[in-house]
Amino acid sequence: MAVELNVLALSLLFLLASNAKAQPNNGVFDVMNFGAKAGGKTDISQALMAAWREACALVSPSKVVIPEGEYVLSQVTLAGPCKAPVEVQVRGNLKAPADPSKFNNVPSWVTFQRIDHFTLSGAGTFDGQGGYAAWAQNDCKQSKKCNKLPINIRFNFVTNGLVRDITSVDSKQFHINLLGCKNLTFANITINAPDQSPNTDGIHIGRSSGIDITDSRISTGDDCISLGGGSQNITISRVTCGPGHGISVGSLGKYKDEPVFGINVVNCALINTSNGVRVKTWPASLEGIASDMHFEDIVMVNVSNPVLIDQEYCPSNKCNLKAPSRVKISNVSFKNIRGTSATQVAVKLACSSGIPCENVEIGDINLSYIGTKGPATSQCSNVKPTIAGRQTPLACGLIV
Ligand SMILES: *[C@@H]1O[C@H](CO)[C@@H](O)[C@H](O)[C@H]1NC(C)=O
Ligand SMILES: *[C@@H]1O[C@H](CO)[C@@H](O)[C@H](O)[C@H]1NC(C)=O
Ligand SMILES: *[C@@H]1O[C@H](CO)[C@@H](O)[C@H](O)[C@H]1NC(C)=O
Ligand SMILES: *[C@@H]1O[C@H](CO)[C@@H](O)[C@H](O)[C@H]1NC(C)=O
Ligand SMILES: *[C@@H]1O[C@H](CO)[C@@H](O)[C@H](O)[C@H]1NC(C)=O
Ligand SMILES: *[C@@H]1O[C@H](CO)[C@@H](O)[C@H](O)[C@H]1NC(C)=O
Ligand SMILES: *[C@@H]1O[C@H](CO)[C@@H](O)[C@H](O)[C@H]1NC(C)=O
Fold first, then answer.
1. Is any ligand 2 atom within 6 A of the Cβ of residue 125?
2. What does the longest C-alpha to C-alpha distance in the chain come to?
3. SS3 for 15?
4. Are strands 225-227 and 203-206 parallel, antiparallel or unpaired?
5. Is residue 245 annotated as part of the catalytic site, yes or no?
6. pLDDT, tens only, 131-143
7. How confident is the model at residue 320, as a pLDDT?
8. 185 Cβ inside 6 Å of ligand 5
9. Ligand 6 neighbours by CB, cut-off 6 Å
10. pTM, rounded to two decimals
11. Alpha carbons 133 and 100: distance in angstroms, whole number
């Protein structure tokens, strides 16, 4: 017993000693110790990169801290793989260069890449310093130039992580973009941009699975959350959206092999948005599948298209509307959706004439039209939904 204790004490001592040597800061790397200066005049990107490199190389969990204060930050990519879990805690307010030409046509401001077991936390702000001068260069309808404006925060191939408490404001393009991520939770996120700022989607998810977005507030000029091709097992709960274009799946059908499965949107509120919950696919599209999508317990306040499946989505009016979408939509439910519609057609299911929607369920809808043209209505094409519970308006005009 005594021997065992001694061995334990010795190894504990050894552990403490080696820890003390390897981590002089208990695994905490404050950017101020790497030359960062607050006050919003000197770029902290080099300091942040230096702190990141040390944190990422540590064999035990580590944390990079940006303390309270104002900072300017030019473009950075914080990349793994790292040796152990890393947290980046942003307590301060980070400001991007206001001038889009400072980004050298790389459409990213802060990128987190190839990191496993990652946490981004802190009550700090990522201020993209968009503004109408920058947004005016976002001319998606005329050219492809819009892709060149930077996205505030990118997560590329980040797995098993948590993003919490942060705020993103006035991104020049999308606020948060996910590509190739797995098992990430976004909690208590705030996103803010004016309702006239183009293409400033709140959170865009592509080719990612196991993503949860919860307890968050998003006000923006485009979709609050958009789920692009390859989004699988996504849960969105307790999110308030507005102004903005709503919570959207799509637009789908532009790329091959990007099936969408397992979307759950529950307990959300949409306020003053141009759409509520919608699924959109391009006409004349490639083949695709979007299935197992469920929208439940949603409150709409003055929403223009509260419930919408749009398989002829064509915002620029430059599509071939003669050929149908070839994205097959199936196993969809809209349940317990209530509140007010800003347009008379409160429920619209416009499915593909080539591949009708299958297994769509509508249950307990109570949407009233706030205008003066009469009661709310519902329009459907190429779909025969299953109807349950009370329906205002009558689903697809059917009396059940
Ligand atoms: C998902 O990520 C969280 C946070 O890192 C982790 O605790 C959890 O074990 C992961 N789940 C799976 C199935 O790997
Ligand atoms: C949510 O984030 C804010 C900072 O943006 C913080 O003050 C607040 O405590 C957080 N709420 C929870 C429940 O963690
Ligand atoms: C999605 O979730 C289902 C059920 O939990 C699981 O079987 C499937 O492997 C998951 N798919 C992905 C891509 O995470
Ligand atoms: C909706 O927008 C109108 C006009 O901008 C505004 O007056 C109203 O307060 C907004 N409603 C809510 C609930 O925010
Ligand atoms: C409804 O939204 C429209 C903009 O879509 C706005 O002009 C109007 O003031 C809003 N009405 C209410 C009652 O909030
Ligand atoms: C839709 O649901 C049915 C019944 O639950 C299931 O058999 C079918 O595989 C689902 N379709 C897709 C494309 O997942
Ligand atoms: C529908 O909502 C209205 C208020 O918007 C409410 O008066 C009515 O009771 C609701 N109907 C049902 C069946 O819940």
1. no
2. 88
3. helix
4. parallel
5. yes
6. 999 999 887 666 6
7. 83
8. no
9. 289, 291-292, 330-331, 359
10. 0.93
11. 9
183 burial type by CB count under 10 A (0-12 exposed, 13-18 middle, 19+ buried): middle
Residue identifier of the C-alpha nearest atom 11 of ligand 5 = 302
State the number of CA atoms in the 13 A half-sphere of 299 facing the CB: 11
Intervals of the chain under pLDDT 70? 1-24, 140-147, 399-400
Measured in angstroms, how far is the CA atom of residue 248 from the centroid of ligand 3? 21
Pick from 333, 160, 214, 326: which is nearest to 263 by CA? 333
* DSSP-derived pairing of the beta strands 167-169 and 125-127: parallel
Q: What sign has the CA pseudo-torsion 313, 319, 324, 328?
A: negative
Please state, in angstroms and rounded to a whole number, the distance separating the CA atoms of residues 24 and 393: 65
> What is the arrangement of strands in the sheet containing 345-350, beginning at the earlier edge strand?
76-79, 108-113, 151-156, 176-179, 203-206, 225-227, 247-252, 277-281, 307-310, 345-350, 377-381
Q: Which residue minimizes the CA distance to atom 2 of ligand 7?
A: 366
Torsion-angle region of 106 (φ positive above 0: left; ψ -120 to 50: alpha; else: beta): beta
Domain boundaries, the chain: 223-399
Contacts of 232 (CB under 8 A, 6+ apart): 208, 209, 210, 259, 260, 261, 262
pLDDT score, position 24: 61
Q: Which is the catalytic residue, given 117, 175, 245, 294?
A: 245
Per-residue pLDDT at 398 = 72
Per DSSP, 116 falls in state: B
- Whole-angstrom CA distances from 342 to 181, 296, 320, 347 are 36, 20, 29, 12
Q: Spell out the CATH class of 223-399.
A: mainly beta
Residue pointed to by tokens 């191939």: 157
In this prediction, residue 138 carries a pLDDT of 83
